[in-house]
Amino acid sequence: MKHSHVLVSGASRGIGAAIALELARQGIVVGCLSRSGVLPDFAGEASSLHTRLLPIATDVTDPAVFAEAVAEFIDKTGHKPSGLINNAGIHTACPSHRLSADDFRQVMDANALSVLFGCQAIYPFLLEIGGGLIINIGSFYDRLGIKQNIAYCASKAAVGAITRCLAVEWAKHGIRVLNVAPGYIKTDINREAIEHGPLGEFLAKRIPRSEPGEPDEVAKLVAGLFAMDSGFLTGETIYIDGGQSITD
Ligand code: NAP
């Protein structure tokens, strides 16, 4: 399947913005979903690139609003999307004995339920066009036990499980579902801590490739998966972490 129209959630900055730009560089028209509705920064790109970026303000934690965003994209472009990258997410840290149910739910809503809502919103259109590709952005924290990160780790483990279940359930429709799980990537979530705190020094020793990733490196993987369209690849979690999760 050749992909010409794709949606990316959390595309206003960070990893999602890099993914949207990389897909647009490949000629794909990209629906850029975020609460702010801000487009990724396309300064320095080819002058025509921004015409392939469509901003859509939405909240991915509300299933009706997510479905409206997909409808708006189809209405404005006249095309049904053949792909979705569920990238929007949040991170919070809190000692587990003090974490409230509301705070736990907020992270699960933003990181895990939003993935299900996105998949549900695009499903009828993928059925109509005979298949498609959904890539969820998880995290290598999905299989680690990290202090004060119980909600985030649980939410990302759920992303892996949602990916596997939908991949199996929807394979007969030609719909593939993958989970791309990054390690430390320099974005607004952690830039201050990496560049000015002890985290940077720790990661230089801890990551076998000696430094955190850049959003572009995740974007190239995601765009590559869209370009290669390898039909037998589905349900997998693909780690991109410079080797951090497999070293001793
Ligand atoms: P980021 O720089 O904080 O960007 C998060 C994006 O999500 C923004 O575009 C934000 O836009 C959007 N967003 C958040 N909540 C939303 C909502 N309810 N509805 C719609 N959009 C929402 O984060 P990032 O570092 O790029 O992370 C992106 C994804 O990668 C997340 O799922 C994160 O867990 C995952 N990840 C990141 C790292 C890392 O080291 N950075 C590592 C592993 C996994 P608005 O504020 O405009 O809504």
Describe the 3D structure.
There is one protein chain. The protein contains 7 helices and 7 strands. It is α/β, with parallel strands linked by helices and 248 residues long. The chain has one domain (5-241): NAD(P)-binding Rossmann-like Domain (Rossmann fold). It has a 7-stranded parallel beta sheet, sandwiched between helices. The model has no long low-confidence stretch (mean pLDDT 97). The structure holds NADP nicotinamide-adenine-dinucleotide phosphate. NADP nicotinamide-adenine-dinucleotide phosphate (NAP) is lined by residues 9-16, 34-36, 38, 58-61, 87-91, 110-111, 137, 139, 182, 184-185, 187-190. NADP nicotinamide-adenine-dinucleotide phosphate is lined by residues 9-16, 34-36, 38, 58-61, 87-91, 110-111, 137, 139, 182, 184-185, 187-190.
How would you sum up the major sheet? 7 strands, parallel
Number of helical elements: 7
Bound molecules: NADP nicotinamide-adenine-dinucleotide phosphate
CATH class, named: Alpha Beta
Q: What class would the helix/strand composition place it in? A: alpha/beta
How many DSSP-defined strands? 7
Q: What order do the strands of the largest sheet run in, or round the barrel if closed?
A: 3-2-1-4-5-6-7
